[in-house]
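quick one, 313 residues, struct below
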Amino acid sequence: MGSVEILAAILILLVIFKNQVSALLSVQSLATWTTVFVSVMVQAMPFLVFGVALSAVIAVYVPRAFWARALPRHPALAVPVASVAGVILPGCECGSVPIGASLIRRGVTPAAALAFLLAAPAINPIVLTATVVAFPNNPEMAVGRGIAGLVVAMIMGWLWTRLGRQEWIRLPYRPDLEGVSKARAFWTAVRHDIVHAGGFLVIGAMAAATINVVIPERWLLTLADNPVLSVIALAVLAVLLSMCSEADAFVAASLSQFSLTSRLVFLTVGPMVDLKLISMQSGVFGRRFAARFAPTTFVVAVLVAVAVAAFAF
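---
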């Protein structure tokens, strides 16, 4: 039984038990869970498809020699170049994961690929423009977000050149694309990656929806008055909410009870470390990688955002 048959069976069951399902959805907590889950999926899916398609283009149509010419040979120099390249690619973190994996497959040094993976969803023009719109009276938020995101991406890339291990990255098996037409190879790569990465996206979205229902809102109000706890609270909240980077600025703007510093931390951490991203990284790069990369990125992002805020605000 394949995925199509399973989907058909689920749809048939939903039709048969539609009254019971409707009664369940009338429960407020379940309705909230469903709303959050669907919103995360709707936000993330278009960019995941875009990232998978671009990943397939890189794998099939871009020759390995291109990356040798485009990036400096030394990893320490390739990291800032790859980080700045993230400015020109509109997309969110869901799309950057398969692109990063494809870059590594094509011979790009992991340090540069990971720097691009972090920078692309954090500092691209769409994200920065959304931040300007969300904070019309605080344009420094967009500037601080761009600087913090770029610095974090470069630091993590450089940390990988010194401390990273190739054996930590376990890319999943991809069907052999050699010996077939480019069109067939492209669709084979797209079909494989969308199924693989999409499954982990669903897991991450379910976890984020569960957290949204479990955490009481009054806890956040209590933490907002403490400068240190408010920073930690919004950093953790960014991980748990798992919002798309194109939309998180408007959520941050609505958290007016928190300081600009803690909200900048929220905007810096979110595109780089959240539940759906950790889940996808585990599936695409391996659990050993995610267990090391995600916590380190979280700490670096918080520290850099606080440091940038000290000069910006």
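Residues 58 and 192 are 15 Å apart (CA to CA).
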